[in-house]
Amino acid sequence: MVEEGALLWEPTPEIIRSAKITRFQEWLGRPGEYHDIWQWSVDSPAEFWTAIWDYFAVAGERGDGPVVTGEMPDARWFEGSTINYAENALRGDPARLSVIFRDEAGNRRTYTVGELRAEVGRVRAGLVRLGVTRGDRVAAYVPNIPEALIAFLATASLGAIWSSCSPDFGAPSVIDRFTQIEPKVLFAVDGYRYGGKSFDRRNVVQDIAATLPSLAATVRIPYQNGIDGAVSWEELRGEEAEPEFDRVPFGHPLWILYSSGTTGLPKPIVHGHGGIVLEHLKALSFHQDLGSDDVFFWYTTTGWMMWNFLIGGLLVGSTVVLYDGSAAHPATDALWNVTAEEGVTYFGTGAPYIVASMKAGVKPHGLDRLRGLGSTGSPLPPEGFAYVYSHVKPDVQLGSFSGGTDVCTGFVGAVPLLPVRAGVIPCRCLGARVESYDPEGRSVLGEVGELVLTQPMPSMPVMFWNDPDGSRYHDSYFADYPGVWRHGDWIKIQPDGGCVIYGRSDSTLNRGGVRMGTSEFYRVVERFEEVADSLVIDTGQLGQEGRLLLYVALAEGSSLEETLVTRLRTTLRAELSPRHVPDEIIEVPGIPRTLSGKKLEVPVRKILLGVPVEKAANRDAMANPEVLDHFLPIP
């Protein structure tokens, strides 16, 4: 058992001196502790975000309009300015290594800045020939390969709007997303490889294209067999052309991301060029401490916002590593091996991969250059923190981050000026006025409450697509506290600024009036070697106590014997409370997760309470839809 808050790492004076945030403070003339610059960033947002623009010499026309006008949800930033994401991403020495591509089959490709610019110029010219202009949508059904990045940058350079899904999405899930945005061009692969197996996607692509009457063309990126009637990638990029960049208004749509879509139609979340450029410059430089000497790798697919965050490494001049394939093929250490072989300096992944490595006893080697490790997607338990320092690398800075697709960044995270403590996220991020609200809507410290933002950020959505009056956007974040963003997570902000995330506030365990986030429960249960994964559901409803059900997926060779059940109950009673002993412990073959690895707590709860599966969850938005059949309504 690792005590929450145990000190695991402290920055040396040299790390603090050389940190990019320290240089920024020197440039500002604002030396001091991290809390001091954070407080300034939220007290003086216009000065802070102007300083980000100026410090990074953002390519664009600043204009003479106000930095921010209006209040949430109608705040507008840098009106009168123009900018283009792709122009800022493709700056720098043409000879500098920009992209490394790896896949699980052992293939490797690289691109310099000059080579990447040339490819973007070619594909941009091809899109123009297909009739793509500013404001058109370009959709992609592609894995995390260089062609995806090139197609995105070419799209952005035109002021067109990008949207992507990973090819492990089923046709209905993709159709739910792309029919909402009516794309003019669809980039697609005819297949993909995962876990050592090949998957044919030709019929899926044809099904998707058939539902999109707005399409002028489908562009086939080569994988194996071809797609009937499609323009080939080679044909599209067949003409040499210098890249050009159409500068657009600060809030002009850059890309459309989607909520998970596990229930109902996914929300099409639109982010703007300017907000993403400023936010990613800030986050990647000052919180991840990335620059031109770094190799940046985050394991992700094109269907998760972390792909958009990863390619943001180009904005700060880092070399980005794109990886296509399974994290655990041929073995659990696959990503650690890529990190070692490519000399990665900052590696990021989902918290489940770190926990899986811990359970498998993985001891990575060759991580000489690794100095930063990122974790996101779900709360990392204190034991996961401790594993990193005992088995991965004792001098690495582990940064657990929490934010979301909604803003394409983290609200709370790490910074090289602050120590790392088990289970604790070190700080609220610069420019993010994060607070914890109690049930009466009062800001509290040292207590678990609703995570809210009481001040706008530039990377908040500029809108939801097809939401002309803004009602869907308003109802998603501002219905509970007018003018305040409610994110839907439980958070405790400690007096020193450290934060602990306790899971989604809409999947709370409320037993006898004692509320608890699910992450505390998982921390106890998943410490058992016999338990590979778990899901806890409280079926209680307003004014009515329900049953507390614990579902466990067991490690290979384990069985749910009475001795294990007794040990689980005894430990939960001792470490949580008697109220949190499950009424029933049920073995299932797997825990339902989204394609980005998040547990489906709310949809499963709906199923247990009698909502039909097809209404409670979208199987095509899941990584393992077959396991849903093992979750049955409570009689």
UniProtKB/TrEMBL annotation:
Protein name, as recorded: Acetoacetyl-CoA synthetase
NCBIfam families: ac_ac_CoA_syn, PRK03584.1
GO molecular function: acetoacetate-CoA ligase activity; ATP binding
Family classification: Belongs to the ATP-dependent AMP-binding enzyme family.
Record key words, sorted: ATP-binding, Ligase, Nucleotide-binding
Domain Acetyl-coenzyme A synthetase N-terminal: 34-89
Keyword Lipoprotein tagged: no
Record-linked Pfam families: ACAS_N, AMP-binding
Organism: Acrocarpospora phusangensis
GO BP of this protein: lipid metabolic process
InterPro entries per UniProt: Acac_CoA_synth (IPR005914), ACAS_N (IPR032387), AMP-bd_C_sf (IPR045851), AMP-binding_CS (IPR020845), AMP-dep_synth/lig_dom (IPR000873), ANL_N_sf (IPR042099)
Residues in AMP-dependent synthetase/ligase domain copies: 90-456
